[in-house]
Amino acid sequence: MQYEVTQTGNTIEIGATGIQEIIQNVKIILSTQKGTVPLDRDFGLDLSFLDAPTPVAKALAVSEIIEEVEKQEPRVLVKSVEWIQSQTDEMDGKMVPKVLIQIKEDVSV
Predict the structure, then answer these.
(1) Whether 7 contacts 27, CB under 8 Å
(2) Within 13 Å and on the Cβ side, how many CA atoms surround 84?
(3) b/e map of 37-57 (b: 16 or more CB within 10 Å)?
(4) C-alpha dist (Å) from residue 31 to 1, 56, 69, 107
(5) Where are the alpha helices (DSSP H) in 1-109?
């Protein structure tokens, strides 16, 4: 089964299990900048692509998102990364990823 995950709605549910836990973990990865977690400086996304022109930044971001999500949450496969972007967001340089994940079949949830 596939699920759409975005950065929005990042309330943390203590004790989440199963699919909710996996989705919550992916949201946390998407909203965490690498280097900001004190005991795990390698956790999160490297946002160095943000200063690039938007088309280049999007391409670099897709690569970073896929690599980091699959590394930090090995129970999922990233199927695609799309962008939620209004015309105003695009003018402001705002990029909001929508990540389609698939939970691996060998994972019991």
Answers:
(1) yes
(2) 10
(3) eeeeeebbbeeebeeeeeeeb
(4) 23, 20, 11, 24
(5) 18-30, 54-72, 87-92
Report yes or no on 109 lying in a domain. Answer: no
Q: Is the pLDDT of residue 18 over 80?
A: yes
What's residue 43's pLDDT?
95
Q: What span, in angstroms and rounded, lies between the C-alpha atoms of 59 and 41?
A: 24
Domain membership of residue 54 as a residue range: 2-103
> For 65-92, what is the mean pLDDT?
88
Model pTM? 0.86
Find the CATH number of the domain harbouring 49.
Answer: 3.10.450.40
85 DSSP β-pair partners: none
